[in-house]
Amino acid sequence: MIGGVLTPYVTHKRENGEYQKLLDHLLGVAKLAEEFAAPFGAGEHAYCTGLLHDVGKYSQAAQQRQKDPEHTSPVDHATAGAQVAHKRYRDPGAAAAIAGHHGGLLNCGSRACEEGTLMGRLQKKLDGQLDPSAWTTEVFPPQQIQMPSWLRSLPKDRIMYSLSVYIRMLFSCLVDADYLDTEAFMAGGKTERAASFPLPVLMERLQQYVQPWHCAASSALNQKRNELLQRCLKGDEMPKGLYTMTIPTGGGKTVSSLAFALSHAIRHGMSRIIYVVPYTSIIEQNAQRFREIVGEESVLEHHSNHDFDDADGKSMRLATENWDAPIVVTTAVQFFESMYSNQTSRCRKLHNVTNSVIVFDEAQMLPVPYLRPCVNMIAELVEHYGSTSILCTATQPALDGLIANYAPELSCKEITENTGELYAFFRRTQFCCEGVLSEEMLIENLHRSQQVLCIVNSRRAANKLYWMLEREGCFHLSTHMTPEHRSRTVEKIKERLKNGSVCRVISTSLIEAGVDLDFPSVWREEAGLDSVLQAAGRCNREGKRPLEESLVHVFRFGERPPVMFAQNIIALNKVLDKFEDIATPEAIAYYFRQLLFMVGEDALDTNGIVEKSTRLAFKDVKESFRMIDDETIPVYIPNERNALLLQALRDRTISRKDLRKLGRDVVNVYAKHFELLREYMYCPKDEHFGILQVADRYDKECGLLLEPATEMKWFP
Predict the structure, then answer these.
(1) CA-to-CA distance for 372 and 352, rounded, in angstroms?
(2) How far apart are CA 174 and CA 46, in angstroms?
(3) Residue 480 in contact with residue 667, Cβ under 8 Å?
(4) Residue 713 and residue 716: Cα distance in Å, rounded?
């Protein structure tokens, strides 16, 4: 009842036939959006956007569609709502968010543009049945709204890029509020939220976890790690801002960075910690470490690219991830592609990045063609969205110049001290250049060591070398294995290393970050210097062997290197020619100067992401910003634990909580590999994912097998 009158205006319908009142939905979304946008000063703006987002449903045609969807055509209520907002406020933010709240943010366009742009949609003429003017009988928004003062006061050369980020954040607040209010109604008033604990409780658990460090700091190595930890525990003494954390491999970087993030977040009343890692394949290693420290329920791993949009249906759309957790572990690809996306599914979580501590692990691994837009976005989040960003890497000089060029207003402070001394202290290996080796020569060398790690640049090479090794104590790691099987394999490797058993591992570069393994000998195919140094971090990690017996062998195969590695290898060889010790800060700085000189400044934004952003070309930006050239598609691997979850996925009834669980059983593959596997999978028409059905196409030791199987064994 509204003012004693039964309202005829409705929206969502439960299975029992009960409708949600349209006004109730508008008010619910408005209040949630206001709450989400408050941290960046846009509460009122978001409230009005939420209040008007579905006013297009007040039309006669829209109400007929709500009550009889099987016999009526779809109604473009989003355009009608955007026109109302634009006419009332002349506000591009609210109009853009409302127009895109189902199909995604549009390119802004010009007044001469067609319907595919925001301007075209705002000029679109609606016939009488689409007239939503009845909204004025129920909805009473403020007479005027303004964007935050910080945005209005920006200089002309910066305001358009900042406006593009702001509109995307406003859009995120609207979309998540819309999803959550709908989810609450469909579930009878209950929204599904994962159980977790407040950050002060997590800090107490961290303190308990590191307590033995104080007592056991007898060795010089443990003493140094403890010194770094104590420094990071003083994160509460530092203001919000942009920081670097330079801790060489073996210095306890994972725990120390979490210590800084927790203490800093608690001091400043921040919402969560987002840990951004370079590879999908190492999320589980970092997340498992965090679980050991703070508990299972407070850590979210966001592995998959499996997000749903409107085409997938309402129930599946509600399952998309929104990062509502105290500690989120995700990849640089997922993070930055989301920050530059226009899709509802990917943008839903963006407002939860505000007022967060964001730790970029191995920040030097950000791909060169996207360095400028990545640095711009990091600066924007720090300056205007209450976030603190930590660039955590052992090769810090790579980003210093870029930050100075593209974010001159930000001062970047180092958390640790005496970084030169730290490099010298944590030096645990020596490097040997082996030149060109055949596969047979490499295998012969590997067989001479009881325990050895070999890292190559491709999955194909890793798979072939694995089958050339003697079977005893032989292991393989690649991104075509599920996170669950990679984790189990790593545990087996750790056990063999600990017991002194035969242990020979062939891996792709996934092992170079976030995986705490300690081999007496490492062989690394030529790649960038940062990759070679990361590989060295898996050798003599605990410093228990003499330096001269802890060798990292750098080799190359006879064929020319892949194009994607060519410039990195050229820069590496220049370092090898110039420096006797390639692990010093001076050598690392020289390497990155050479690399950036070779590619040139234009190559730091090859797809013109920043320029397109200033034109508010949201769709073009999304299509251009692909940190991995080929988009990946999730393939789910059945097992004895997940049968019911996969059935729910097939039936499109899966919840966000259960979709998170399936993240341990997924392999993200390129589209060309997805096509090779198609006949062996269940694939919905929209092709957002596949479920493997032929058991012989997945091996627990090697992962997904792309070659045809001689006999097909189906999953039960």
Answers:
(1) 23
(2) 7
(3) yes
(4) 9
Q: What is the pLDDT of residue 394?
A: 64
pLDDT tens readout for residues 325-383: 899 999 899 999 999 999 998 999 999 999 999 999 988 788 889 999 999 999 999 99
d(CA 57, CA 66): 8
Domain count within the chain: 4
Question: DSSP code of 278?
Answer: S
Predicted local distance difference test score (pLDDT) of residue 6: 40
Instruction: For residue 708, give the DSSP letter.
Output: P
Burial class (CB in 10 A: 0-12, 13-18, 19+), 652: middle
Contact between 397 and 575 under an 8 Å Cβ cutoff? The reply is no
The residue segments making up the domain with residue 402 are 201-415
For 303, half-sphere exposure in the C-beta direction (CA atoms, 13 angstrom radius) is: 27
User: Do 206 and 311 share a domain, yes or no?
Assistant: yes
**How many Cα atoms within 13 Å fall on the side-chain side of residue 658?**
17
Higher-pLDDT residue of 473 and 68 is: 473
**286 and 225 fall within a common domain:** yes
Q: CB-based contacts of 551: which residues, under 8 Å, 6+ apart?
A: 429, 430, 431, 432, 521, 522, 539
The continuous run of DSSP H or E covering 338 comes out as: helix 332-339
Contact residues for 127 (Cβ-Cβ < 8 A; gap 6+): none
- CATH code, domain carrying 530: 3.40.50.300
Identify the pLDDT of residue 143.
87
* Nearest alpha carbon to residue 121 among 155, 76, 88, 168: 76
Residue that the structure tokens 């394949």 belong to: 281
Mean pLDDT of the chain: 87
Are residues 319 and 376 located together in one domain of the fold? yes
Is the model's pLDDT at 710 over the cut of 70?
no
CA distances from 403 to 333, 365, 418, 670 (A): 20, 15, 21, 32
Q: With b meaning 16 or more CB within 10 Å and e meaning fewer, what string describes 603-629?
A: ebbebbbbebbbbbbbbbbbebbebee
What tens digit of pLDDT does each residue of 416-436 get? 877 778 888 888 899 999 999
Q: Rounded to two decimals, what is the model's pTM? A: 0.84
Dump pLDDT digits (tens) for 167-200.
999 999 999 999 999 989 988 766 655 556 799 9
Whichever domain contains 61, its CATH number is 1.10.3210
Instruction: Give me the torsion for CA of 21, 27, 32, 34, rounded to 10°.
Output: 160
Structure tokens at 330: 């995700």
